[in-house]
Amino acid sequence: METKRNLIAGLDKKTTKAILISAAVLVGWSLISSILALGPITASIITYSLYGFYWFYAVKYKNPLILRLVIFGTVAGVLELITDHYLVETINSLVYPNKELMIWSSPAYMPFAWSNVILQLGFIGVLLTRKFGIPKASIMLGLAGGMYIPLYEHLANNAGWWWYKNNTLMIFNAPVYVIFCEALISLSLPLLIQYAEDHSLKKTLSLGVLEGVWILVSAFLAFSIAG
Prior knowledge:
Elements lengths: L12 H24 L4 H20 L3 H27 L3 E2 L6 E2 L2 E2 L2 H23 L1 H26 L3 E2 L5 E2 L2 E2 H23 L2 H26 L1
Antiparallel strand pairs: 1-4, 2-3, 5-6
Helix pairs in contact: 1-2, 1-5, 2-3, 2-4, 3-4, 3-7, 4-5, 4-6, 5-6, 6-7
């Protein structure tokens, strides 16, 4: 008999293929935008396209896993605006182009960009949790997030989407504290998403809020240690 963790509604080969392809599309788009220095318009295009695709997939195929991940990621992404403000205005580290439509200190697309990345990493976290359990999955995803998101940061710099002031220790175009922060963020996903899967949509909203708060706490901790 299969264990409960192997019986996740919405987790199937078709969905796994769709999410992994979408993650590859994001990296490929970011790479091309970086090589050609295409500017922030390409960040908006890929962000809104992927975000719309995830909602379409969740509704079209009545996929409860993707629906919960989109909701979870959206709530966390909106609250991440607070963290962006901290990075831009408080510690003066993060810089966005001044020709974009902004929400507070962030480009208007930023909450949805975070939702997309959280969904992709969260889905991988679900796969890892199914195979290894939450403790090992958390460590593995933390390491993966600490490598994957800084790659995205590096490409974003050359694409002209955003960049960091060179006033802290850097690895390529990503500050060390950002790598540490994003590893901490990824570390939290398997546990929170597991709870989201086991409870109501209302609980998913609450857990999205918790993730948004954890993003801010991670930024504080990371900058205090490695900034």
